[in-house]
Amino acid sequence: MDKFFYILLVVIGGAAAAVQSPINSGLGKRIGVFEGGLWSFLTGTLLLLLLVAVFGKGHLSAVTSVPKWQLLGGILGVIAVVSMIVSAPQLGVGLATVCILFGQITVAILIDALGLFGMEPIPLDYNRIIGVILMLCGVFFVYRSRFGV
């Protein structure tokens, strides 16, 4: 498939995450932080069950034979969702999102550079380093526009 399709797909995913943050934060204020996170994951689980039932072609029973570290995705998802539920009302959705993206991009580039988690190594170069520095500048400017410095 054309790389443009995958770029569009993750841009849509990022847009969904940005909309998810204020929705989950509002829910967390009304029913509780962890309860809001639980509801988010429950509704997501229901959708995934439907998608597996309709489109699934994998082998869910093989989950017992995968390396144990590959089972941590849900835990990491909880950390991401709860961090946004708690932080977005305090920082604003824009700053919270820029911060989570900075953390995500920085760690992703390290994973690429080191070839961690079975990923094909992608060498760290000046373009990637400059990209991380520019992201950090973005965090600074969005912070400054929100809180002044």
Q: Could you walk me through the main structural features you see in this protein, from its secondary elements to its overall organization?
A:
The protein is mostly helical and 149 residues long. The protein is built from 5 helices and no strands. Helix 2 (33-55) packs across helix 3 (73-91) and helix 3 (73-91) packs antiparallel against helix 4 (93-114). The chain is globular, with a radius of gyration of 18 Å. The N and C termini lie far apart (46 Å). The mean pLDDT is 94.
Q: Would you summarize the structure shown here?
A:
It is built from 5 helices and no strands. By secondary structure, it is an all-alpha fold. 9% of the residues are buried.
Structural class designation: mainly alpha
Strand content: under 5%
- Kindly give the count of domains: 1
The helix content is: over 70%
User: Secondary-structure element sequence?
Assistant: HHHHH
Largest beta-sheet details: none
Global morphology: globular
**Measured distance between first and last alpha carbons:** 46 Å
Rg to the nearest angstrom? 18 Å
Number of strands: 0
Low-confidence stretches: none
Q: Average the pLDDT over all residues and give the rounded result.
A: 94
Number of helices: 5
